[in-house]
Amino acid sequence: MIDQMQIQMVDLKGQYLRIKEKVEFGMQEVISTGAFINGPYVKTFGKNLEKYLGIDHVIPCGNGTDALQIALMALGLKPGDEVITVPFTFVATAEVAALLGLKCVFIDIDPHTFNMDASLLEAAITEKTKCIVPVHLYGQCAEMEKIMEIANKHGIPVIEDNAQAIGSDYVFSNGMKKKSGTIGTIGCTSFYPSKNLGAYGDAGALFTDDEALAHKIRCIANHGQVVKYQSDFIGVNSRLDSFQAVVLDAKLSLLDEFTRDRQNAAHFYDEAFKDHESFEIPVRASYSSHVFHQYTLKYSGDRDQLRAALNERGIPNMVYYPYPIHLHKAYKYLGYKQGDLPVSEQLAHQVISLPMHTEMDTEQLEFIVDAVKKSV
């Protein structure tokens, strides 16, 4: 019988055993050389990630929130400029805009993919709109081809929040493929430990094919300095340390394998719940592969009751996200009210995420599925 202690939302310890030798060797080398910040491992990881993504410039930074803020700063946005994004995501996407004095304009999401509803985008654009920030939620891309068509028509840059979908492939209508985060003006990601490509602490990165923009991003992330002690831009201090680069580079070499592990686990869940009257399984968009940062069901029953029953059975579960950003107390000043973004508001009461990671085996999955079915 399976030990309930084996069931975890994310099993980082089990994953570590796959990369233990490479990580321990690299960390010891960092200590021996003393190259703790922006050392050789950081540069190697950046180059390897550029190759993996098929993009010219990867600029590592301190965390995913910093990446979003640096991207907005690099585009030269000014207080009062409008940024169109979605409310059904982690607050960092809107937070950085607010910190820079920008105005968030929220549009609703597609009820099946959980991503920005591109059909609502153009109507939200005004003369003050200076950036669009789609979020690739739960592991698959927003409808980037349509978003980019609208953005290009209006001359508006696009920042992709790619914190949850690294490794996902976007398929254009002509059959061309690009990695998530490489389609817009700038891509941003988080390497928080639980991410599909996760560090052992905070870490993040920005991606772009624009050389001039990449130069500015590098400077902003390093106090705005081109030459030491000479700041050409107002900047921040956001650099990747070498220990995190060691971990990330070791995991990057296995990222596609990790993705297949997640997809296999998702397929098992799908087969178990696809005909269940209380659940809607995750929808795969025709234009994007799904890397399953989260496996998120829509539940038609009493979610609090379900969660309590799962907790009693030792099954971890999470709600990403129970409160749309436009209803957070901190963002009341924007003037949104209950009912303004009905899809986001409804999904906030319906979604529930089950354990999803690279170390799940059939026995664990069977145990989880059985517990869920007994809990509804």
Question: What do these coordinates show?
Answer:
With 376 residues, this protein is an alpha/beta fold. The protein has two domains: 12-252, Aspartate Aminotransferase, domain 2 (3-Layer(aba) Sandwich); 255-375, Aspartate Aminotransferase, domain 1. Helices cover 38% and strands 14% of the residues. The protein is built from twelve helices and 14 strands. The strands form five sheets. It has a four-stranded mixed β-sheet. A three-stranded parallel β-sheet has the order 3-2-4, covered by helices on one side. The chain has a three-stranded antiparallel β-sheet with strand order 12-13-14, covered by helices on one side. α2 (40-53) runs parallel beside α8 (242-252).
Would you kindly provide a brief summary of this structure?
By secondary structure, this protein is of the alpha/beta class.
